[in-house]
């Protein structure tokens, strides 16, 4: 159902519960906290022994309330992972090499499909625009502002237009010049000097709070909802007015705090997918500096991610700093992917789902963010045509006259961006889910995979020697991304041996052996051996430890760290002399 429609909170919970019931061995449902309005924020953990820590992948969607497509894609990825555990060797309906499917089966996944359950309910059920949370607990409430409300009594809270000789909008015509005819249904566009009237003002459907009878306040996207969750994270957080939507302090929203608490307690997260809409673009770090300041090893790994994104989705991949600043040289503050990359050391990025611009035949703009700010009349005509042809006319419709109690006659109902602009048409949702899963489950297969094996057990001079190999078979090192090595939670691995029964450890003298970090084999798209210098590294991906024991019994061996989890091996030792 989530592949062809946008689910409400109860439907998402129902889907997650169904999976947890059907697959109790590999899928555990939990909540990481409650939303401001008291809804549970659900997390599905997928993997063998889901409660046992090991390198993990995080997927979240819908932290911006209107961007409900992220929930569907998160659920689709979860469904594909469950199918892989049932034996499928594919992702997004495309073949996945068997060894990559094996890597998926060894990895732990944390899937959080809806981070703003309160906001999404408002968007889906009332058609209201909410950035993240509809709960507005601001103390500064004495000023005039728009507050969303249903004015015509149809249950929806959309937009209003009002005729005004000094309005900034006109109805778009089918062509430029005097012969152009107004589009039907009408499409509102910014007025140009040559445009004849009529002209319009455009407001959210609702009331003016603290109205003085004459002054109409400027609509503002955070006018009646305080938070942008994606500005409330601690990395480079900055307050209002420097950063709109920042909140009172990092993690001040219960929803973001729940993510912070979970991430802090889960140092094993190696990959972090933060799903948004719209645009058809992957936004990677750095968000606040040019690529020349980025760890070169990290950058090479992101180039590998980019290659898969291009191949499987056709989406562009851009640096947040180079191509996605809303204002030049003004980096965003307090966003989630920066936190996940810098503070949690995750291979983290944003995907803006739904490549609307590409669907309209618009050439890739540089910087990518210009797609949003330089959307021409030609592009808008293409959008209106797309809406008619491929979106059942869900965006542009007829306006209906209604008397507004404060500002007189207005019209409502002619514009609804939820399906077709903010999110893909229902008819394109399944394809969006498939292509994203095909690309992402390749990235997920890069996590480190540590094994502990007894290579050999031999009797030498009356003692038993146990040769143990600790190895990382994954693409990423045991600390994750190269830049993550210095983080406090990137602890080096340790081996601890303990004799049980009649076994005594003779050597090494200490029961604890520092293993350190183990390399991954991956070096980024162009960072490994080259055609011109094909030499590889040494065997930094493995360490050998020899234990010398006396007697019979069991040697309990533990190897790991908080970053990669702990593996346990019990070695039975039988000594002929006792
Ligand atoms: Zn977003």
Describe the protein in words.
- The protein contains twelve helices and 26 strands.
- The chain has 578 residues and is of the alpha+beta class.
- It has an eight-stranded mixed sheet with strand order 1-2-6-3-13-16-14-15, sandwiched between helices.
- The site of zinc ion has 3 residues, from loops.
What is the structure about, briefly put?
The chain has about 575 residues and is α+β, with helices and mostly antiparallel strands.
CA radius of gyration is: 28 Å
Question: How far apart, in Å, are the first and last alpha carbons?
Answer: 64 Å
The biggest beta sheet reads: 8 strands, mixed
Secondary-structure-based class equals alpha+beta
**Could you give the order of strands across the largest sheet?**
1-2-6-3-13-16-14-15
Shape field? elongated
Overall pLDDT metric: 96
- Determine the fraction of residues in helical runs and give it as a percent range: 10-25%
Q: Total helix count?
A: 12
Strand content: 25-35%
Strand segment tally: 26
Low-confidence stretches: none
- Which hetero compounds are present in the coordinates? zinc ion
Task: Tell me the layout of helices and strands.
Elements: H1 9-22, E1 27-34, E2 40-46, E3 56-61, H2 69-85, E4 90-91, E5 94-95, H3 98-106, E6 108-112, H4 117-126, E7 145-148, E8 159-163, E9 169-171, E10 188-190, E11 200-204, E12 206-209, H5 254-265, E13 269-277, E14 281-284, H6 296-313, E15 316-319, H7 320-323, H8 336-343, E16 347-353, H9 356-359, H10 370-373, H11 377-390, E17 400-404, E18 408-412, H12 426-444, E19 450-460, E20 463-472, E21 493-501, E22 504-507, E23 512-516, E24 542-550, E25 553-561, E26 565-573
Parallel strand pairs: 3-6, 3-13, 13-16, 14-15
Antiparallel strand pairs: 1-2, 2-6, 4-5, 7-12, 8-11, 8-18, 9-10, 14-16, 17-18, 19-20, 20-24, 21-23, 21-25, 22-24, 25-26
Helix pairs in contact: 2-12, 6-12
Bound molecules: zinc ion.
Zinc ion (ZN) binds next to loops.
